[in-house]
Amino acid sequence: MKKLLLIQSYGIHRQGLFVTQSKYPPSGLGIVAKLTPSDWEIEIIDSLSSSQFNHKADLVAISSFTPTINNAYQIAAHYRERNIPVIIGGIHASILPDEVSQYCDSVVMGEAECVWPIVIRDFENGKLKQRYDAQRCDPKEICSPEYRLFNKGYKLNTIQASRGCPLNCEYCSITLLTGAKFRKRPVDHIMDDWRNIEQGFVWFSDDNLFGFNDKDRQWAQNLFSRIEAENFNKNWMCFAGVRSLLDEKTVAMAARSGCKIIYVGFETTDADSLISVKKSTEQLKYYKRVIDLLHKYGISVLAGIMLGFDNDTPESIDKRIDFVLESVIDSYFLTVMTPMPGTKLFDQYSRAGKLRYTNFPEDWGHYDWTELVFTPSRMSVALAEEAIFHAYQKAYAFQTIKNKFRQTREGLHSSETAMLNYLSNMDFRETFLNRI
Ligand code: SF4
Predict the structure, then answer these.
(1) Conformational region of residue 211, where left means phi above 0, alpha means psi within -120 to 50, and beta covers everything else
(2) How many CB atoms neighbour CB 354 within 10 A?
């Protein structure tokens, strides 16, 4: 029986976001496993595994994203030296296939569903191609991961209910990978995943589970009512955009089905920063309304806030942190604004000579959303770094996190929800204050 080794790369030298250890299983590799013919033996190596090296295999496939790509190259070199062919896929490979193809035998671009069976067939026939460029698949074809192969140490598991984001933000590469069309999986398929997950907590990994228009909202409502009907004692969380959370009926249905936290993409509290990345400022007027509405139904708010916009100053960064700490937001993810490769902003900053790290591929490790990778317009790099570090120290101080815990417990009348947010904040503290 042939053996396929599926490896999730991670950042061996850095502590960045989701880079050293993931809190949830590698769902992309789980999908590849599911698509592999049953006469193959499959092993998944992830950040909970003791080593990425010296496993036996006939074929190795590595999933990677920009900050971890150098680890993928290191793993690839190790197995290729032993004459084991290596395939690399994931968002970085999809965006920079020419770079990635220098370090492996084959690059898989795009979504695995349409192409992985062809890759395996070609390998079996000794005809593995250097590059496979997959189409975006029909939402009915989006595959469930092979959950049984995941490491048992994960406390939560993920479901991908949709793919695609029409917003195409200037700094984000998600739309480049998954397209601008919001592709919704049939609710029956999502419920199959819900039933197959053993853990008591599910993270919907979609970019915006509440969708972008009325039709999306009806689909989300249908999903929430099905979850409510078959709950099996599970709670869940998801990502959502500010405007998608204005509909009270949908929020109430989400809460009844077990939603405990929503990661809300606030991004910033300044009109100027939104304008600097060519985004509408309309969302600013809804922040309080969205926070109050989620709290009314017992759903806590994990705020996604970015620091280090091009036109930020120490004062604007400070003001943003004050908003987070003075509001009733329960937990917060304070990333550094990072133009990812392939995006408009990356090209713009590159042309303007603003990027601080351009020795690629070695420098991709800096693009992990915890470090300022460009020179801002209104302050020096040193001043910006100091302001960002000061913001982390303030927001993730033990006493602040404890105060937030009490605030959530009293405001939402739930120790369980308060603890979920406390643990999130402690995780973020670890990530941001201990980064190398
Ligand atoms: S940042 Fe979020 S909303 Fe913007 S393109 Fe990326 S996934 Fe979509």
Answers:
(1) left
(2) 16
Please check the confidence at residue 18 and state whether its pLDDT lies above 60. no
From atom 3 of ligand 1, which residue's Cα is the shortest distance away? 167
- 165 CA to centre of ligand 1 in angstroms: 6
Please give the order of strands across the beta sheet that includes 259-267.
157-159, 201-204, 235-240, 259-267, 300-307, 331-336
Q: Which atom of ligand 1 is nearest to the CA of 165?
A: 8
Question: What number is the average pLDDT over the span 213-231?
Answer: 96
Q: Are strands 183-184 and 162-163 parallel, antiparallel or unpaired?
A: antiparallel
- Within 8 A by CB and 6+ apart from 201, the residues are 155, 156, 157, 234, 235, 236, 237
Contact criterion met (CB below 8 Å) for 324 and 303: yes
- 368 and 340 in contact (C-beta within 8 Å)? no
- Domain range list for the chain: 2-133, 155-435
Distances (CA, A) of 276 to 98, 271, 341, 379, 396: 31, 9, 18, 15, 27
176 lines ligand 1 (CB under 6 A): no
Instruction: State if residue 205 touches ligand 1 by the CB under 6 angstroms criterion.
Output: no
Q: Is 207 in the pocket of ligand 1 (CB under 6 A)?
A: yes
Task: Provide the whole-model pTM.
Answer: 0.94
The helix (H) or strand (E) run that includes residue 108 is: strand 106-109
Residue having the nearest C-alpha atom to atom 7 of ligand 1: 207
CATH number of 155-435: 3.80.30.20
For ligand 1, say whether the CB of 169 is within 6 Å of any of its atoms: yes
Condensed to tens digits (0 to 9), the pLDDT of residues 141-192 reads 999 999 999 988 888 999 999 999 998 888 888 898 899 999 999 999 999 9
Tell me what pLDDT residue 236 has.
97
CA of 169 relative to ligand 1 center, distance in Å:
5
At residue 135, the pLDDT reads: 83
Q: What's the CATH superfamily of 2-133?
A: Response regulator (3.40.50.2300)
